[in-house]
């Protein structure tokens, strides 16, 4: 179930962390580190009536609401955005996963974070565990439903 999107806080936080277009994982990472009590969330975004496929995305959750620091760059009506959670990480878990990725794969970007194997396939890509597959399938269903409606 989508937690309500706080559009005002999303825009304010996007400005405060200098969010950039097409970098939702980095934007959410910086926002999570800058926001007390935040959870870093990865999953999929569907733009109702526009998305043919789910968009891999990241945001934060704060006080039972979705806060998306990338929102200012989406140029979409916030009422048409649906978020599908694949995984949530506390700040401690997030920092540990990023440090581990930097250590194990120093030449690669540490974000996004996919957790431990075994990984599942969605589409033509193998990423994340069963939680990723379930979130992807739910988001894909939403894409199909929203495009079928006149």
Walk me through what this model shows:
Helix content is 39%, strand content 22%. It is built from five helices and six strands, in the order H-H-E-E-E-H-E-H-E-E-H. It is globular, with a radius of gyration of 15 Å. The mean pLDDT is 91.
Shape: globular
Distance between the termini: 24 Å
Strand content: 15-25%
Biggest beta sheet summary: 4 strands, antiparallel
* DSSP summary, beta strand count: 6
Average residue pLDDT: 91
**Rg, nearest Å:** 15 Å
Task: Specify the number of helices.
Answer: 5
User: Unreliable runs, pLDDT <50, ≥5 residues?
Assistant: none
Order of helices and strands: HHEEEHEHEEH
Structural class: alpha+beta
What spatial order of strands do you see in the largest sheet? 3-2-1-4
Helix content: 25-40%
SSE order and pairing:
Elements: H1 7-16, H2 24-34, E1 39-47, E2 55-62, E3 65-67, H3 71-74, E4 81-89, H4 91-104, E5 121-122, E6 125-126, H5 130-148
Antiparallel strand pairs: 1-2, 1-4, 2-3, 5-6
